Amino acid sequence: MKILYAGTPSVAVPPLAHLADRPDVEILAVLTRTDAPVGRKKVLTPSPVAQEAQRRGLPVLKANRIDAELTERIRDLGADVAAVVAYGALVPQAALDAVPHGWINLHFSLLPQWRGAAPVQRALMAGDTVVGASTFLLEAGLDTGPVVGTMTDEVRPEDTAGTVLERLARTAAPLLADSLRAVVDGTARPAAQQGDVTLAPKLTAQDGRVRWADPALAVVRRVRGTTPEPGAWTQLDGRRIKLEGVTARPDVRDLAPGECRLRGGAVLVGTGSGAVQLGTVQPAGKKTMDAAAWARGHNTEDRVVFE
After folding, report:
1. In this structure, are 177 and 233 located in the same domain?
2. Annotated binding residues, as ranges?
3. Do both 292 and 150 map to the same domain?
4. Structure pTM?
5. Is there a single domain that holds both residue 142 and residue 241?
6. Which of 29, 125, 177, 215 has the greatest number of C-beta atoms within 10 Å?
7. What is the domain range of residue 229?
């Protein structure tokens, strides 16, 4: 089975590695987005998928947009089928038609739930207890194509969007490989998506801002869903503080929304109902630190209120 693989971020690396290790798969080329600036010095850096492909000696195509010229290159590859995992750009109809058996997208949701760029993040923010992955035939609409296969996974108490995505990237890799094989062999039975549609648009920095007037459970869900990106945060004296590892403390009810206190080694913050306990914090321009150590240094014996 000859394939074109399209993907960009680290979550697309495990499926690429799994396909590359299969004896029945020949990866003709890897399509990824162009090098992007990384870090404070904005050093142009190949995508995680590009780095994995280069490590394996696979040909790499870099493009942020699939134009007519790239479409012809894709057609000339002679791939049987294309695999897509978080490539990060739309695939136009001409490119879809350039591969005989089409493009199979691995999406980290149970479609039609959470169509879009941030399915796991939005699922955790909504409080979903079950997540999963779907493979589907790519078409012009946003994640609307018929489903080839699915798998489910339970959300764990300590999970964040980062840990769920890392786990699904590994456990769903065989699903993608099996779906590609079934489509090429003609044994797949793609089925139209059934059920209510929910959307998962890309997160912005503002999605990570904690709203202390929300109930404690909503605060916890927001932090889990926006960790590690774009990051959950609040403000103190106009300066941003990043938050991770936040847990609900329903037993604490005497703190106003946003009011922060250090009690018995725990950093507690009031919400619209109950309180939460902070795990780690990262003040602007500083390294991540234990919340209690930060609180002791900040003298939270005085009244501190997050904005």
Report:
1. no
2. 109-112
3. no
4. 0.94
5. no
6. 177
7. 205-297
